[in-house]
Design a protein that fits this description.
The complex is a heterodimer of chains A (162) and B (203).
Chain A lengths: L4 E3 L4 E6 L3 E7 L3 E7 L4 E7 L17 H14 L7 E7 L15 H15 L3 E7 L5 E6 L5 E4 L5 E3 L1
Parallel strand pairs in A: 1-3, 6-7
Antiparallel strand pairs in A: 2-5, 3-8, 4-5, 4-6, 8-9, 9-10
Chain B lengths: L8 H26 L4 E2 L3 E6 H7 L6 E11 L3 E8 H12 L10 H26 L3 E3 L3 E6 H13 L4 E11 L2 E11 L1 H10 L4
Helix pairs in contact in B: 1-4, 2-5
The chains are: A alpha+beta (162), B alpha+beta (203).
Chain lengths: 162, 203
């Protein structure tokens, strides 16, 4: 079967079955959360922007937040045949793109996005098997639903599979 | 709830005028810096969905330059100046009187681009300040050269608190054959945005 690559935009999520790929381009302070069910070969990817839907009034878009984004991603994966108990996670992103000496909480949003993501996954008993987070550079990621491998590409900071 | 996607024409006109005055001041400053005539187009105010933001600058993985500022005093928030590589190279050609386009940015170029970003951001802050009577201090610039998606995630996230759209002011400068398109993201926090609208009498 031909492999399709499904693009996931900012504040968006999508799921697929083997052999297709899921990708999100140019993650900065946002976090790319990938979930994978190895038994059923089902993959999911969410590109979240903010840590918590509870801090914000305008929270209809579930994929925008770590907490509701993960819930929604699991729901979508289960719908196409994934088993929630088989899911493992890989995460990437959460960079701080600009540096200032001040204590601006806005700049630490990447770090807060990662923390919120980890907290939510822990709460759901989903193990994080690998991550490529932090730093001050952007990342493009590609999740392969055939084996759950996550390819990370950067400009000037190399590429790897995690 | 405020969403920039719901801004009415009157407010967009005000922002456009603000952009116009700011860009005019910036063009004048730029012209006197390089002692040449700099032309400027009427700025374009664009309201974009998050997924469209990176496309304006050539797609999520395209290499771009972002210059970021902190705003303090009466207006608290940030401002960002973003330009693609062609514009960045043209800008340095303009500044250093060069013609080559097949080159990489060096330290000197990056520092010069930062400085122009600083002038531009200050021009906008000043025009906003004189229109509203609000005091605005602007920080030293912080610069990043990376994927458009990654750099633009910073203003997108700030808009993400209040909206599903981002507001961008696009300005094109021209000197001889050198075209420079700069994109300004103005990111006041929510209470500062209210303050600005109140000062302008549109709230």
């Amino acid at each position: 079967m031909e492999k399709n690559t499904i693009k996931v935009g900012m504040a968006d999520l999508n799921v697929t079955k083997a052999p297709h790929l899921l990708t999100t381009l140019g993650l900065g302070s946002c976090v790319g959360i990938t979930l994978y069910d190895e038994v059923n070969k089902i993959a999911g990817l969410a590109h979240i922007m903010l840590p918590s839907s509870k801090e914000i009034k305008n929270n209809e878009n579930k994929a925008k937040f770590a907490d509701t984004g993960i819930d929604e991603l699991i729901k979508s994966m289960v719908k196409i045949g994934a088993n929630k108990n088989y899911l493992v996670a890989k995460i990437a992103g959460g960079a701080q793109m600009f540096n200032f000496n001040s204590n601006n909480q806005m700049l630490k949003i990447g770090e807060r996005n990662i923390m919120a993501t980890k907290e939510k996954l822990k709460e759901l008993n989903i193990r994080i098997v690998s991550e490529d987070t932090g730093g001050n550079f952007g990342r493009t990621i590609v999740l392969d639903s055939a084996d759950g491998s996550l390819y990370v590409r950067t400009i000037g900071h190399g590429e790897k599979i995690i | 709830m405020l969403d920039v996607g719901n801004l009415n024409h009157f407010m967009i006109d005000i922002l456009k005028e603000l952009g116009n005055i700011g860009a005019g001041n910036a063009a004048t400053a730029l012209a006197s810096m390089i002692s040449k005539k700099v032309n400027m187009d009427v700025p374009n105010v664009r309201i974009l969905e998050f997924k469209e933001v990176a496309e304006v600058l050539g797609g999520e993985e395209n290499l771009i330059v972002g210059i970021y500022f902190e705003l303090t005093e009466d207006v608290v928030g940030n401002m960002m100046f973003a330009l693609d590589m062609d514009s960045a190279i043209n800008l340095t050609n303009m500044l250093f009187n060069r013609e080559r386009n097949d080159r990489q940015l060096d330290e000197m170029d990056i520092s010069a681009i930062s400085e122009v970003g600083n002038i531009l951001a200050s021009s906008y802050a000043n025009s906003l300040s004189s229109l509203t009577g609000l005091k605005i201090f602007i920080s030293v610039p912080s610069i990043s050269i990376d994927m458009a998606g990654a750099i633009l995630s910073v203003p997108a996230i700030q808009y993400g608190h209040v909206a599903d759209h981002a507001l961008m002011i696009e300005t094109t400068f021209e000197e001889n054959q050198n075209l420079v398109t700069g994109n300004i993201f103005f990111l006041p926090n929510l209470s500062s945005f209210d303050k600005i609208l109140t000062a302008l009498g549109v709230n």
